[in-house]
Design brief:
Layout lengths: L3 H11 L3 H8 L3 H8 L7 H11 L4 H8 L6
């Protein structure tokens, strides 16, 4: 399950628009919103590209956002 709050914070901090991110993932803006809101799941290749776009590099940060794990 995606941590919607953390992902939205990363998107906002990046300055990228949802429509641009969606185009880079080869999905519609509506599909991206559904994935962010946990109404559908991100595919592995989408997660990889999204991490690249948003500068998410550490395994811990990836897990916090895309697995919604509460790591210490």
């Amino acid at each position: 399950m995606t941590n919607t709050k953390l992902l939205r914070e990363k998107i906002e901090a990046s300055g990228l628009k949802l429509s641009y991110i969606a185009s880079q993932l080869w999905i519609s803006r509506a599909a991206l919103t559904m994935k962010i809101e946990n109404k559908s799941d991100f595919r592995q290749k989408e997660i990889v590209k999204l991490c690249e776009l948003l500068g998410i590099t550490t395994p811990k940060e990836k897990a916090l956002i895309f697995l919604d794990e509460k790591l210490n």
